[in-house]
Structures are given as structure tokens and as C-alpha cells.
Amino acid sequence: MHVKKGDKVVVVSGKDKGKSGKILACMPKENRVIIEGINMLTKHKKASNQMQQAGIIHQEGPINASNVMVYCEKCKQGVRTSVKVLDNGKKVRACVKCGEMFE
């Protein structure tokens, strides 16, 4: 998967195209991500006991990871990433356009 939890991403297709947010969760087996404030779903919740509140809950739904790009602060847009190997052997992701490293 080209994105990780905590990355700032931009949605490139779908109903939320152009919006950006932080990744809250990644599901690599399903190739899906949950992004803060994107793909909001309405869920009707029933109280399971006397103390719990019932009502309508708005929560983020998962979207396909292929519909998001990592946001580069230097380029000010969504970019593709490449993998660079540092001198100490550690692999890091980098912006293809400007070379800025993520993490």
C-alpha cells in the first residue's frame, strides 16, 4: 500500500474529489483507507441498554486506496511517491516531483 496511517492525503476521484484529510485507519487486505472527514456515512444507532444514547451517528466510511494521493507540503498538491534508500540502508518514501521525503 502506498499510504500509511497518519499521512495527509488528497482524494483524486469520487464524490469527495479534491478534499484532503489525515488517514485514520488502513485496511491493506481490502486495499481501503478511512480518512478524517471524507465519505461521511449516516448510521442509525439503537440503544442496547438504558444508559446508552440512541440516535443518528455520522462517521467516516472506507474508500479505495487507489483514489487517494499523498499530499506534498512543498508542491502543495497530491503526488506520486517513490522509494529511496538512505546511506544507513533505511527505505523512505519521497515525492516524485520535488524529492521531499515523507516521515
UniProtKB/TrEMBL annotation:
It comes from the Bacteria. One of its GO terms (molecular function) is structural constituent of ribosome. GO terms for biological process: translation. Keywords: Ribonucleoprotein, Ribosomal protein, RNA-binding, rRNA-binding. One of its GO terms (cellular component) is ribonucleoprotein complex. SMART domains: KOW. PROSITE patterns: RIBOSOMAL_L24 (PS01108). Residues 2-29 form the KOW domain. Signal peptide: none annotated. HAMAP family: Ribosomal_uL24_B (MF_01326_B). Belongs to the universal ribosomal protein uL24 family. One of two assembly initiator proteins, it binds directly to the 5'-end of the 23S rRNA, where it nucleates assembly of the 50S subunit. Part of the 50S ribosomal subunit. This is Large ribosomal subunit protein uL24. It comes from Dethiosulfatibacter aminovorans DSM 17477.
